[in-house]
Amino acid sequence: MPKSAQTTEVYNDLRARLMNGGFAAGAKLKPQELQQRYYCSANTVRDVLFRLARIGLVVFEEQKGFRTRMISAEARRDVTQFRILLEQEGVVRSMYNGGVAWEAQLSAVHHKLSHIETRIARSGELGDDGLLWSQAEWEFHSTLISACGSPIMIETFETTYSRFRQQMYTQERDFGGDYFKSIILEHQAIMDAALARDEDACRRTVYDHLKRNF
Fold first, then answer.
1. What are phi and psi of 177, to 5 degrees?
2. What string of DSSP letters covers 166-185?
3. Are 201 and 193 in contact (CB under 8 A)?
4. Which tens digits make up the pLDDT trace of 173-199?
């Protein structure tokens, strides 16, 4: 397997674990243990950990190595507020710039997300659908801003979303049926506003979806 392909796979898996409660807050990330887990070289692990540090999911300290980021209510509020600003502006720009292809893609990823969330709401627990939900939600929110026309905004949103997800998932204690019944409606409202090209509704529905994290 080419090194670049292996590095990408390790990065994606470790990023998903960091964003979805796979490590305790402040946990030490030991390169040797990660090498054994992923059957990869020390250089690959080091490259991946530094990439994750650049997007804020991991903290590196000289002489101490790598640790997962600490979690706090203050950090959660801060990253939530910044995410709201980015997503509101991104979706409004996409609403004006995006054409039929953007609408079709948004409808498709929302259909997938809604299916997964409905299944979880019926069962009353995340179960084995947790990672599927995480990926589907990222696809929906990233598609919302994908036609904004600003590569810097898209890159910054990915970093912000990752840090938000890490803070939210580690602190949230109730992912039961009621939680998902609410966000199903919220995601539907965001999509409806975007497809209707309603700027005020777009900004309001994004805020309403995220305000529980303050």
1. -60, -40
2. HHHHHH----SHHHHHHHHH
3. yes
4. 677 778 899 999 999 999 999 999 999
User: For the residues of 45-108, what is the DSSP string, one character each?
Assistant: HHHHHHHHHHTTSEEEETTTEEEEPP--HHHHHHHHHHHHHHHHHHHHHHHHH--HHHHHHHHH
Tokens 């203050």 identify what position? 74
Provide the β-strand partners of residue 66.
29, 60
Four-residue CA torsion sign, 201, 202, 204, 208: positive
**Rounded distance between C-alpha atoms, residue 129 and residue 113, angstroms:** 11
Amino acid at 106: L
Q: Which of 3-17, 77-91, 128-142 has the highest mean pLDDT?
A: 77-91
Cα separation of the two ends of the chain: 44
pLDDT tens sequence across 102-121: 999 999 999 999 999 999 99
Task: For the beta carbon of residue 9, count every other beta carbon within 10 angstroms.
Answer: 15
Give the global pTM.
0.88
Cα–Cα dist 141/5, whole Å: 26
